Structures are given as C-alpha cells and as structure tokens.
Amino acid sequence: MLARTPTAGPKAAISAAEMGARQREISVSEFFTKNRHLLGFDSPRKALLTCVKEAVDNALDAAEEAGILADVVVTVEVAPSGGAAAPPASQATRFRVTVTDNGPGIVRQQIPPIFAKLLYGSKFHRLRMSRGQQGIGISAAGMYAQLTTGKPVQIISRTGARAAANYFEVQIDTKKNEPRIFESKKIDWEPPRGTQVTLEIEGRYQKGRASVDEYLEQTAIANPHVNLVYRTPEGETREYPRTIHELPPQPREIKPHPYGIEFGVLLRMLHDTESHSLAGFLAADFSRVSSAVAQQICRTAKLSPSARPRQIHGADPEALYKAIQSTKIMAPPSNCVSPIGEKAILHGLYKQIKGDFYTAVTRPLAVYRGNPFIIEAGLAYGKGPDPAAAAPDAPTVPLAEGEQPEDDDELARVIRYANRVPLLYQQSACATFKAVLETAWRNYGVAQSKGALPAGPMAVFVHMASVWVPFTSESKEAIADYDEIRKEIKLALQECGRRLGVFLRRRERAKSEFRRRNIFELYIEEVVEACARLKGGKLPKEKLRTQLQKIAMKRTGGTRTDEILGHDAGPEGLPHSIIVTPEGPEGEAPALPGAERSDGTPPDAPRPEADGLAPPRRKGKGAVRPTNAAKGNTQAAKHQLTTAPKRKKR
Amino acid sequence: MARASGNTSAAVEKKLVGVADAVITAAELRRDPTLSIPVRSLANINFNEKRGIIEMGKRKQARTFFNVGMAKKFMQTVLVADALAELQRANLTTSLREIYYRTKHTMKGSHENTFDGQNESDPLIEDLEVALAALREELHVRAENAGSVVGPLVLVDDGDRVDCARLGKGGYSVPSIVEPEYIEIRRCTADFVLLVEKGTQWNRLSEDKFWRRYNCVLLTGNGQPPRGVRRLARRLHDEHKLPVYVLVDNDPWGYYIYSVVKQGSINLAFESERMAIPRAKFIGLSSVDPGTYGLPRSVGIKLNDKDVGRAKELLKYRWFQKKAWQDEIKQMLSSGLKYELDALANKDFRYLTKTYLPRKLKEKDWLD
User: Fold this and answer.
1) Is the pTM here over 0.95, yes or no?
2) Domain parsing of chain B, residue ranges
3) How near does any CA of chain B get to the CA of A395, in Å?
C-alpha cells in the first residue's frame, strides 16, 4: 500500500510511520492456527480424519522409502475429558489417535522438528512420488492437538534392534515455528523398529461417508501390500490383511522437466545453479535435456551457451523461457512414478468390495505441465453372489400389487486416490469425478441420467500417481482439472467400461437363456394345475407335465443351452479382470488370508493362486443337468443351473 | 339366454374346458399349445356403412405357450378360463377385480406372481369373450353399476317393479346386465332418450324435472357409458322405437363417446351387434354452440397435445367421414378450445334445462 498523505484521510487517519510500526512478519504457524481449514481441520469430524490420515501417510511413506512392507496399527480411542467417565464413541468430543508402524524409525535429533515444525520435511525439495508433499501434515495435526486439548504430541521411535527407543513429547512454538520439547527420554519399547505417534485432539467420530473407517478401508484397497489393523473407538478391531507380498517399485527422484516449470521458478533456478554456463545449467538441472538440446535452446533464445546463468537478466530469461517451451524435449522418464498396478488394484478391490465383476486399467505415462503422471482406474460391479441362491430354503415373501422385486437406483460410488492416498472430500470439484460423469456409461450397459453418476451397484476407482499431484488446495482433497489429466482418466474409465460392457452382455445372454427355460418350468406347473381343474380333476397331470417339459426342452435348445450357460461366464478376453460366480472367483483373484469372505467355498477347497498366471478352475465333474430335476422344485433347479460348473475346453 | 348368441351355462362351461383340451391335445401331438384369439384393435375392424356399425374383422392372433413373449399371457389365459369355469359351475356372478384376485398367487418356488395387476387380467377376459364367442354376461362377469336412469319408464328387476318416474332425483341405478331375462321393460311412455355424458349434468336435468316437461328418459353413464347403459338405451330404441340423443362435452372424448353409442367401440367391436344405435344423434355440445349461444371465450379450455392428437385420429376414422363431422372436428381444432357442458352455467344455472336443450330440440339442431 502506498503511504497516504495525512490530509487526504479523515481525522482518524494513521500515518505511514504508525502503520510501519505495526507491520511485522507473520509466522507460518500463526497463519495456519488462524486458517486451520486450509489444512483440513475445519470441523471436528474432519479434524479426526485428517490427524489419522497425516499419521498414516507418513508411516506408509517412510516404510516404502526404506523398502519395508508396512505393518500399520491405527487406534482411535475416546479420551476422557474433565475426569468424567468416557462417553460412548458417537457422543465423545475428545479422542486419542495412535498410529504405530514398523518403518525405519527416526533419528533422535530429527524427531522434534518433524513433528513440531511446519514446512519441515524431506519431500518438498525433490520431485519424487510420495504421499506427503509439503511437510505440513503431521506438524499441523500436532498444532491442532495443542490448540484444542493442549496436549503435546507423544512420539516413540526406534531405528533398529540395537538402538534404544526414544520417547518425546513436543509442541510447536507457534510464534517462532520451532519445536518445544516437554519430555525426552530413552525408554523400553517392544518393537525392534518403527515409530508411534499419539495425538490427543478434539474431534467427532461418525461413521459413513468421509469417515476414518472409510479412509482406512480405501487405503487398504489402494495399498494391498500394507497390513493394516484398525481399532475403532467402539472397541472393534478391523484387520485389512496384506494380499500382495512385494513392495511397489521405488519411484525415482527426478529433476524438473523443462516444460513444467514456471517463469519465476526458472529465474530462481538460474540464480541458484552451480553450473557456470547456460548450456551446462540446462543439461544438469533439468531432466531430458541433453547437451545437444541445451545448445538448441540457447540458439532459439539467441543466447550464448557459455553465458553465465547468474548474468542472464532483463528480457533474456523470458526469451529463454519461450525457447524452452518451443523446443521439442522428450517426455520425462517413467520410473519416477510408481503405479499401483492392475493386479494390485484388482486384489484391493476384490478384498474390500463385494461384487460380481472387477477390472483394472493402468494407463501409460502421460505429462501435464511437464509433470509425469499415470492414471489408473478400476471397477467393482455387482452385489456379489446372491446369498439367497446359496441358501435354497430362503423364505419367499410374496409380492403385493405395486411392489417391485428390487428397487435399485443407487448411484455408483467413486473412490479417488492421489499417490495412493484416498481423497474423501470435495468430490465434485475433482477432475476424477468430472471424468466419471463425462464417461458415457450407457454405452457399456449401465444406466446414467444426464449429468449424473452412473446408476447401479458399482464402485469406480480412480488413482493418479505423479511426482506432483495438482491439488486444488493445501488440504489435498481434490485433483485440479487439467485437460491432460481428465483425458487420461476418461481413457482409463472407458477401457474399464468396455470390459464391464462385455461382462454384462455375456451375463445377460446367459441369464436370458436361463430365464427362458425357467419361466417355462414355472408356467408349465400353473398351466397343468389349471387344466386339471378345468377338466374337473380327471387328468393325468404327470403325463401332461412331462409332455410339456419335453416340448419346452426342444424349443429352448436343450443341452445346447446348458453349454452356453456353462461356457459363457469365463473371463476370457477380459484382461485384468475377476468374475465372481456363486462357485467362486475366476481370473486373477487373490487368495484371501483368514477366509473372511463367507462365499460358501469350503475351507479345504483349493484356493486360487495369487500369482494370477494360471486362473484355476474346477473341472466340471458332477454336473447335474437341471431341467431333469425340475419336478416340483424349480428353486432348486435354479440353484443348480446358476452354479453349473464352468467347463473349459481349449 | 341372450338373443345375441344364446349360450346356455353348460355350453359356456364346455367352451371354457375347451381351452384345457387345446393344451392337452397339443401336448399329445408334441406341438406348442396355441390359442387363437381374434385381434381387438383398429386394424381388425370394419365399418359396415350399410348397417352403420363397427364390426370385428377376421384376423386372429395365435397365442402360443412356448414363446418367451407370450408364455406368461398364455398361462394367465388358462388361469382366467379356469376361474370363469368355476363361476359357471357354482352359478355365481362376479366382478373383473374378483377374477383378478381369484387367479393371483405367487408361483410355487419363485418370487413371481401370476398377475402383477388387474390391468393384466382384464384384457384376458375380453380375449376369452371374443375367442369363445361368449358375452360377458354369459361368462357371469359383471361391471359396476355405473349409470342412472330416470323418466316415465317402468322396469321389473328380480320381480320388483321399478317405476323410474317415482325415484326422486336419484333415479334407478342401471345394472351391468340388462338382458330381458334380468330386466323387463314393463312400460315406457317417453318420446325420446337423452343420454348424458356427465353425471353432474344429468343431476341438473333430473333436479329440474326436465324429463317430465319434455317426456323423455334421462340416462347417464358417468363418462364412457358402460355396457348396461348402452344396452338399455338400445333396448328402448329397439323395443319402443325411441330416438336416442347424446349430450356430451365439446371435446374429442365426447365425440368418441357419441360414436361408441352410435357405432360401437373398437375394443369391443364384437358387441356392436347388440349395443350400437346407428340412428343415435349428437345433440351437443357442438363446436358452433359457443357462438350460437353466446358462450364467452373465457369459459373455454385450451386443447392440450393429447386432445389435438385424439381429434386428429377421429378425423381419420371411417365413421367420422361425413362432411358435417369433419367440419365439426376441424372447427374445434382451429378454435383451439374445448368446452364442458358445465360451462353453460356461466349464463345461468338452469341454462341447460331452460334454454339450451329446448332450443336444440325445437330447431332439431343435431348432428347425425
């Protein structure tokens, strides 16, 4: 602001000198104390989620970077407030969040700044794919704890079996953005290695959408290499066992790609570089710039390749910037981004979401603003094998007039991820959500109203992996809507949709064949009974029934139909997909430890292998041709038909 | 019983059992059981110019069992036939809705019901009527009493003498079956029959004792007149040589009601024979009446898309081809308005009784 002349203002005018006396530096910590919504602490419910999220993200990042398969235990407890007995979880306002990992641990002197200094971390100054980016998260959570309960953050960390565990209690000095250490000692800690963080915060525990529960469930889907245990505030223990026993490939750290940098960044880099020549600077500080490309850029910019980077100013940096944008430079290397992978996504979805059909797609590397990224998409469709079909004695409730067998107008659920972290808020602002809306799901046999999500029992999975995910805000809730990103998401979704369409069409065909036969069986019964009554009871019912059944068999294709029914359900031709039938999963289904699915498979039955190379199938022994067994019990016949084994002739 | 076909109860039952026989014979021969059902649609009717009635054509539809699209209907038809045969044996009459409930159940071992709604069973009864050439009365299915009559008319119903001149303003409720075996017309001294579309206007005329001053029988069917009302009008026309005048709203639905009374309906073309009154006249409300009787434009109602579509259909019907009718319908379309009978109250509460009908009758201002 320009200084105002004293005469211009009213009598309360303040002189520039007085204003100057009030102007002083604002510490980041103070800023975020006042603007905590920017970091995801707007409501008590969201605050609880954010604290869990920041701690879990850090634990997973650390373990992966150290090459350790992570075991994470999340405990959320109700904290007693004011000496009274702890209220039930749904009423409580104070919680203690403890996250324990088996990661590499943190060296003693780094513990205070990591947990009690904002913008301190290892991830900001590099271009490497990781969950955290800025180094704000966990210290902001600590600051929130300090603000709402006054309790310091408690940390236990141990770097190896031979080192002792360190125990710390720290808080932030919000004015200085420096850690204040309350307690620091060596303690005995059972695990040989790892870190445990405990935060006591004001929050609210509520299940459902965007809850801690949902966050951890979705984390398990996108991180099948992690073994996650969650102790809920209600005392329940939920386990999300590991289904993939290898770490995802380590993403490489890269230098910025010239297309991605902004003008200001270029200026800063020119100033900070250690190179002595412009061409050297270009080749050394950027990825994919060879010395030949560097020479070419210099020529286009009409600058000397041997010019000193620090001497370039005036109009020259702008010319350089333009030259960079107009020069053809290779796309950034792909090893800096580590996708989850089709198999792992399939395993994750299969493990956590009940369905009939799963598929996953990993797109090739793409680039927005010079940042490499990979889009992955997956689908889980259906409600899983019908439990009623598995239990033939399920009671049938007759339908009254106007009642429908099933009212199914639920909309699909979109589960979104950025660098394996679930995004739970601001769905409609997210590029992934927009891409799901824009995909023409009707082409794939899924209902969709205009401008709405597709309808049906479906979960849509979208993951963006990138060295720098463009979030719409610091609280990292929605991915910004770049055209390149949205296009990639749509391509991935379309491929998923195509596979779903193939599956649905096949299933529909098998169903209609089945239904054809089935309705005749039902109606023959009715017609025979009615005819017998019309004839005054003087009718050999059995004979008429058999005659009609024979005609029905002939008309519906008989044995040929059985073959179609048996053959058509396989996942052939559908890459990276799992189809679940009442008989069990087909395709690249993982073995689920702990047999938590009650899918009726006996425990001693051979489990599908996890490697996915040879989808196992049971041989069609003991197949019962269903129509012969139709006497009186069509329900049983239906059961047999749907469970007819999948024979496969090669 | 009825003159039209004269099926005895035993004969009807035999026809119904024939449905079962068709299934059994086909099964013996390893053929797909098939019922042959005359088509009840505009495509299968003829307008007999000479007799002035709509007659059903010869086209039949084969309803087969082992066809996914028809299987359920086939099964349902057999069920309805069974229920109708039960009525014959027990000598009971029943309603369409009771037939629906009688035949509805959840099929064994499934979640599927034999019928999902009455709209599925009603057409099957009509199918059987035409397929077996048996009238609805003969099938012992009655409709609701949905009509009223008042006037110098004496009927005998179940041995009770009913003098329609002594029944106050409420009149006699016309049963759905008015065949001579059930209802006898003992005496009728009226000069004509006035069939009114709307119950409200019938009430107006009845309250004003219009029938006494103009010596007529007042009939209403509360909308599309049911079979009993149409049949009674026809009997009065036949047996007592009474002219029949039809008073309906000025809209396409009113025109169609008139045409059903006069020529018979498309859906039940097989009934025209004993229902239609080819010499019935359309007395109002005509498209020229608002002008003639000075009804203000403000009491008209804008034609909606459905009205316009229906009017255009009527223009194509063979029995609306007379020039007077084409002009009548086209005038309505060009004005874009329709008028209810009730709109006459705009002039005076008793305008219909005191002015409109007297003038119409005096001037013989009607359409044929």
Assistant:
1) no
2) 9-32+67-142, 147-363
3) 10
